[in-house]
Every structure is written in structure tokens, then in C-alpha cells.
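Section 3.1: Structural characterization of target chains.
Under the original work plan, the team committed to producing a structural model for every single-chain target entering the pipeline before any wet-lab resources were allocated. The record below documents one such target. The sequence was received from the expression subgroup and is listed exactly as submitted; it comprises 153 residues.
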Amino acid sequence: MTDEQKAVNAKERGVALEEALYARGISESAVIGAKSELTGYPVKSLEGNLIPSEDMHDIPEESARYYKMIPLGKHEGYLDVGMLLPDDLTAQEALKFISSRANLPTRIFLVTPTDFGHVMEQYQSLSGEVHTAVGEFERESEDVDDRADDHVH
């Protein structure tokens, strides 16, 4: 079976070509490098760096997860976006909406599944921090209410 037949076979089984390559032991950097050459999109490696929390708000977590895109920050008057599937037409449409909402043009970069996963974890910790802050606010509000009730009696 030729490599081309294997690729077609993987696609027919519903397995992403990249997943088939990873399963064969091909590194993420080799796969993303080849994908960049084929698509023309540049690669952006996060190298373990976190996305600033204010930039995380540019793409809601649900959109990031569904469209496989993550915010990379604002640079040189652009909203930089990392994508796993930059040629996905529905993701492109969502990106147009996000771009108009941010009032910035976008630049698309390829990111590895590992970097994508790290940013998704960042969303989880960010929502955890918000949940904790809301809980603390509610407890403080109850304490204030209790003290106000004590002064009334």
C-alpha cells in the first residue's frame, strides 16, 4: 500500500491524517512543518508560554474548543489566532465574526495539538478562578447581609 493509499484509507475511516501520522510516531513538529509548507500558514510555537488572561477573552472557550482555534494575543495591530484546522470553512466564518467583534484583522498561525491543549487548560483554570471569585463575593455578600440583619434587631 502506498503512502497516498494509506492517507486515503485513514480519511475514509474518519481518522484525521495528522492523527494517523502521530500514531506512526511522526513528531508534532515534523507534521506541523509539513502542514505549513502545504498550506502556506506560518507556525507559532508557544514553547510553554501562557496566553495573557486579557487575550483569552478574544475567543470564547466554547468557540475555541469547537472551531479548534486559540487566541495568541494582539501584535502589530492584528489579532493573532492559532488554529489546528485553518482551512475549515466554518472556522473561517467564525473567525470573521471574532475579527469584527475585536475590531482587528486576524493573522492565522498553525499550532500543535499540544499547544492547543495547553491553552484549553488555561481556559479551564481561568473559569475556575472566576468561579472561585464569584463564590467569595457571594460569601462576603451574605456576611454583609447577616451583619445588617444583626443591626436591625
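The chain has a mean pLDDT of 83.
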